[in-house]
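Question:
Write out your own:
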Amino acid sequence: MLKVGVLGAGHLGKIHLRLLNQSDKYELIGFYDPDAMNGKRVAEEFGYTYFDNLGKLMDLVDVVDIVTPTLSHFECAKKAMEKGKHIFIEKPITHTLEEADELLALEKEYKVKGQVGHVERFNPAFMSVKDKICNPMFIEAHRLAEFNPRGTDVPVVLDLMIHDIDAILSVVASEVKEIHASGVAVISNSPDIANARIEFENGCVANLTASRISLKNMRKSRFFQRDAYISVDFLEKKVEVVKMKDAPEQPGEFDMILQNAEGIKKQIYFENPDIATNNAILDELETFADAIVNDSVPVVSLKQGTNALRVALKVIESF
């Protein structure tokens, strides 16, 4: 078992503590929180060991799980990596691209592994169809959330849209060519609503909308590719796969047949992939343990987390 320590005991940090404590792949040594009152309160309530010294905790573990505010990600990760510790770091990887690039250099220098907490990669709905998403040419994503003060320290692009940016980058095998975007601040000091059009070198276009002041929650992405339409509902954990194939010479009574202007006939049919029940946060933490033990590349590497941040910052720059 890998010895792990958690930095940050806020809302998400407490979830990580609970899951790591029950995991068969980790031994939870304890946690650090700069707010001593909160740290002691969490320790008393849940029984986890609280460390009031960050360095002392790091010395006792193999893996440091960073669940702190974005502004502190870089300093926490740098300290851990310089001590030769593997790092799991919540998204976005860092506050600036320069910080992310430095972590990539530290990862190589100290021969440690890092994974970024882009949890939607482990959403069972997305996982059930990811292999079916092949050369998409148009993508539309909507991520809408009711207002929550937590997370408003960063623009909605880094808070919400970056989830969809990362997922899209994982299925589009092409470099970004151009970005057009707009954003509006309504309640926060930074944009609360944003829309981005991302054009890729291979011709794929992704249209992304994110809002954190909506009246309802929605997390849907639609992938359009030749002969297939794939819809992923990240919130409800449902998928819809509609595909086309050459129509049979003698269609059945209930076959759905389309015919274009050239007379070419296609049959429409549906697929229903199995969606496994899982805990996405536990899965991302445990696959990171597997990557360390097996010396393999993490599912969401620091490089991929950096690429998602790079695109997200370009979206913000184009406002």
